[in-house]
């Protein structure tokens, strides 16, 4: 099936610390992979994506590399800020037919950054 | 450009009552999605529309949930009767359609439902 597993939270870091949130996916074909972010009180926003093996998605200082050999798409940031406090979701797509695609999400990892 | 609009933002009802949520997608987006996000979990797709037709409703509990998108624009999701386990955030998303691959989904702020 099409599933995504990401590390359990919550994660609490001090400002300027290094962040890694692990994500692995089931290897049904070569799905596009995504990280979404949900800030408090807001809707889900696409943070970054990668569409094929060895692609690196990046945005706002966050990066994730599509690793086919380990079926992983870990999210990293070298120096987190308080404003990065949010819930992060790893996701993959699956083709649902009729030209449509569906997202399958992980359970989410809550990040809290303290000053 | 206006984003995906949802209302109400919050709703509290008692079990066995009915409730309806409304979604207005981004203008021009042919595809509309409803997701259920239970606390501590990722969003789960309930139903996907392409214009006013259903593409996939395999995870929609059809004995109590229904959804429609009559004119291919805005959509309503209804629960009748509600159960305690329906407490969740209901997210609406929309995307363009066509093209050779995935079209980015844009999410609304969600409706937080509490069933007592």
Summed up:
The complex is a heterodimer of chains A (115) and B (116). Chain A has 115 residues and is mostly beta strands.
Structure description:
The complex is a heterodimer of chains A (115) and B (116). Chain A has no helices and twelve strands. Chain A is mainly β. In chain A, strands 2, 5, 6, 10, 11 and 12 form a six-stranded mixed beta sheet that branches. Chain A has a four-stranded antiparallel beta sheet with strand order 3-9-8-7, with no helix packed on it. Chain A has a two-stranded antiparallel sheet with strand order 1-4. In chain A, a hairpin with a 2-residue loop joins strand 7 and strand 8. Chain A is globular, with a radius of gyration of 14 Å. The relative contact order of chain A is 0.33. The mean pLDDT of chain A is 91. By secondary structure, chain B is an all-beta fold. Chain B has strands spanning 5-7, 10-13, 19-24, 31-37, 44-50, 53-56, 65-68, 75-79, 88-95, 106-107, 111-115. In chain B, strand 7 and strand 8 (75-79) form a beta hairpin. The mean pLDDT of chain B is 92. Chain B is 0% helix and 47% strand. Chain B has no helices and eleven strands. In chain B, strands 2, 4, 5, 6, 9, 10 and 11 form a seven-stranded mixed beta sheet that branches. Classes of the chains: A mainly beta (115), B mainly beta (116).
């Amino acid at each position: 099936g099409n599933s995504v597993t990401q590390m359990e939270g919550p994660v609490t870091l001090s400002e300027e610390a290094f962040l890694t949130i692990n994500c692995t996916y089931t290897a049904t074909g070569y799905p596009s992979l995504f990280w979404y972010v949900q800030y408090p009180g807001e809707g889900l926003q696409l943070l970054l994506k990668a569409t094929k093996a060895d692609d690196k998605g990046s945005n706002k200082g966050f990066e994730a590399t599509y690793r086919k050999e380990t079926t992983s798409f870990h999210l990293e940031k070298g120096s987190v800020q308080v404003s990065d406090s949010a819930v992060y979701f790893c996701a993959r797509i699956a083709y649902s037919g009729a030209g449509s695609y569906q997202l399958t999400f992980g359970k989410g990892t809550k990040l809290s950054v303290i000053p | 450009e206006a984003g995906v609009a949802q209302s109400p933002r919050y709703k509290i009802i008692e079990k066995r009552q009915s409730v309806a949520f409304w979604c207005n997608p981004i203008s021009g987006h042919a595809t509309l999605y409803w997701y259920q996000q239970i606390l501590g979990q990722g969003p789960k797709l309930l139903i996907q529309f392409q214009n006013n037709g259903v593409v996939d409703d395999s995870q929609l509990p059809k004995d109590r949930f229904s959804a429609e998108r009559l004119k291919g624009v805005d959509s309503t999701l209804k629960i009748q009767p509600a159960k305690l386990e329906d407490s969740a955030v209901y997210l609406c998303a929309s995307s363009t359609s066509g093209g050779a691959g995935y079209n980015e989904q844009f999410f609304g702020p969600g409706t937080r439902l509490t069933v007592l």
